[in-house]
């Protein structure tokens, strides 16, 4: 059964395109709040862009729920489409940042 269709790809195709082993830690509550802050998005705007309910966003950010894998995938993809990069733990702590824009060379 297909739950969501995002840009022509089923949610299961989206999940398979990510490393399943890292999905649960893929977006922490703190990363979600930080990414939303970097983008200056309200919880409602994030919910709309990710195709999720506002209550789901509130619960994820408050760290009072164990979200489904599919929910974390669409949440992460909404942030990535807006230019957010997720930084792995790597001993320094997980985080987020805005992707550096590629400079285009101007022709003379």
Radius of gyration: 15 Å
Unreliable segments of 5+ consecutive residues: 1-24
CATH-defined superfamily:
lambda repressor-like DNA-binding domains
Number of helices: 5
- The percentage of residues in β strands lies in 5-15%
Task: Based on the coordinates given, report the CATH architecture.
Answer: Orthogonal Bundle
Multimer state: single chain
Question: What CATH first level would be assigned?
Answer: Mainly Alpha
Ends apart, CA distance between termini: 54 Å
Query: In sequence order, what are the helices and strands, one letter per element?
Result: EEHHHHHEE
User: Which overall shape is indicated by the principal axes computed on the Cα atoms?
Assistant: globular
Structural class: alpha+beta
CATH topology: 434 Repressor (Amino-terminal Domain)
Sequence of strands across the biggest β-sheet: 1-2
**Average pLDDT number:** 80
Helicity level? 40-55%
Summed up, the domain count is 1
């Amino acid at each position: 059964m297909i739950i969501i269709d995002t840009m022509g790809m089923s949610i299961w195709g989206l999940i398979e395109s990510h490393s399943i082993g890292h999905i649960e830690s893929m977006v922490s509550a703190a990363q979600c709040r930080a990414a939303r802050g970097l983008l200056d998005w309200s919880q409602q705007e994030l919910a709309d862009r990710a195709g999720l309910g506002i209550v789901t966003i509130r619960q994820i950010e408050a760290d009072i729920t164990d979200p489904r894998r599919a929910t974390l995938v669409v949440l992460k993809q909404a942030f990535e489409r807006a230019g957010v990069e997720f930084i792995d733990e790597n001993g320094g702590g997980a985080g987020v940042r805005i992707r550096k824009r590629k400079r285009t060379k101007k022709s003379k």
